[in-house]
Design goal:
mainly alpha; about 280 residues; globular; binds zinc ion; 2 domains; single chain; 11 helices
Amino acid sequence: MTTSLVQWLNPKGIGFIFDPAITFHFGAAGSPMAALFVFCLGACLGSFANACAMRLVRDEDFVAAASRCRGCDTRLAWHENLPIIGYLKQRGRCRHCGMKLSPRYIAVEVLGGLLLLSYAVSLPLGIAAGFGVALVFTGIACLTDLESLTLHPALLSALGVIGICLSVAGDAGLLTWHLTSAQTLAGVLVSALVPIAINTSYRLIRGRNGFGEGDFWLLAAFGAWLGPIMGPALFIAASWLGAMVGIGMMLAGRASTMTKLPFGLFAGSAFILWPNLFTRVF
Ligand SMILES: [Zn+2]
């Protein structure tokens, strides 16, 4: 008997409801085709998140504006905008002015494809689709925080509200969801209160804030997706990650104790790995 790609990627079939239907409808070639489709979709989500983040940081029109080269302002054709393929075809340069394109484009697109594929093969379809949406919001937050140390409360509130709506839909039996609405609300409260308490103590001792205001919004939003136990656990994981990066940068002489680090990037990275990593660890 041949093993499908999805069975090979996910031998234990954790929560998996996607493959049997695809194999039934499309035969043995169905799974690799579906995997390719999901990867391409994830790459498109990554490309979209990247464009949104760049426009948010520069205060540009967020949704409606056409894509233009940042070097020569030429409007880009659809094939130049294709995720991954566009970058490779033009060998990482603008076709019009020759400006070198940031490797960030292709890195975010490949990562988006791989993450969405990993959700699709390891989670029930409803949860995988939900985390696919969260991936876009979190990607934008990580990228704006990395580039300009800013997190946008409106974006993060929307992420939290979507998490709450999905848990309500789960309660109503409309889809499979891993949290009840009560767990979701508790997740929002606890995930926001823990860092607020820590920040208040830090301010009393050191006389300044340890986190930016955007970090509380981000953690509250993640709490709506992770619940009252995993939400604070994510905060601890992100703090450790941030501390290790900070110590590494200080040892390399590239930061001091006063250097601000993009905490949202660490929390966001831990969050988008959560469906794969943390569900296995805990
Ligand atoms: Zn150009």
